[in-house]
Amino acid sequence: MEFVKLTESEYTVMKLVWQNVGINASQISKHLLAEKGWKKSSTYIALTRLENKGMISRSYPKYIITALVPEENIQLGSTEEFIDKFFDGNGKNAFACLLNCCDLSADDFDAISKMVEEKKKEKQ
User: Fold this and answer.
1) What is the pLDDT of residues 15-30, one digit of tens each?
2) Could you please report the per-residue DSSP string of 45-88?
3) Beta 64-67 vs 56-59: how paired, if at all?
4) Residue 58's beta-bridge partner residues?
5) Nearby residues of 4 by Cβ (< 8 Å), 6 or more positions away
6) CB distance 73 to 79 below 8 Å
7) 68-117 pLDDT tens trace
8) DSSP 3-state of 30
9) Alpha carbon of 38 to those of 29, 35, 47, 69: distances in Å?
10) Prior bond to 70 cis, omega within 30?
11) Going by C-beta distance under 8 Å and a sequence separation of 6 or more, which residues neighbour residue 18?
């Protein structure tokens, strides 16, 4: 699947859709008005753009919004883009930076170590 780049406002809308299965456009608009001060037209413009990008579908009569792309796909694509841009595609340097800049607990390090070992086994 090709990576779809989202604007910050589009990602804001998508997070609501991913977190609230069966949400309708009116609910999204009300939430974003309360949380972000968005006008209804701003929300509907973002929804139209997301639909044009193939990220969502809408069904009538209540304008129910359904995500067509899992959040993990966007996270993966955005992470790859970030690593390419800021680390010249070097995943090891990106990983080292994340280890140094995030406040990780001993349990976090154990979980990360386990993930690394599992990924290492897949590569062998």
Assistant:
1) 999 999 999 999 999 9
2) HHHHHHHHTTSEEEETTTTEEEESS-HHHHHHHHHHHHHHHHHT
3) antiparallel
4) 65
5) 53, 54, 55, 69, 74, 77
6) no
7) 999 999 999 999 999 999 999 999 999 999 888 888 899 999 999 999 99
8) helix
9) 8, 8, 13, 24
10) no
11) 67, 70, 71
3-state SS class at 24: strand
Q: Which residues of 26-55 are buried (b: 16+ CB within 10 A; e: fewer)?
A: ebbbebbeeeeebeeebbeebbebbeeeeb
Q: What is the DSSP letter of 21?
A: T
- Category of 63 on φ-ψ map: left (φ > 0), alpha (ψ -120 to 50) or beta: left
Q: Using CA atoms, how far apart are residues 10 and 46, in angstroms rounded to an integer?
A: 6
Cα–Cα distance, 27 to 73 (Å, whole number) = 25
pTM higher than 0.70 for the full model?
yes
Given the structure tokens 């390419």, which residue do they identify? 84
3-state percent breakdown (helix, strand, coil) of the chain, nearest 5:
65, 5, 25
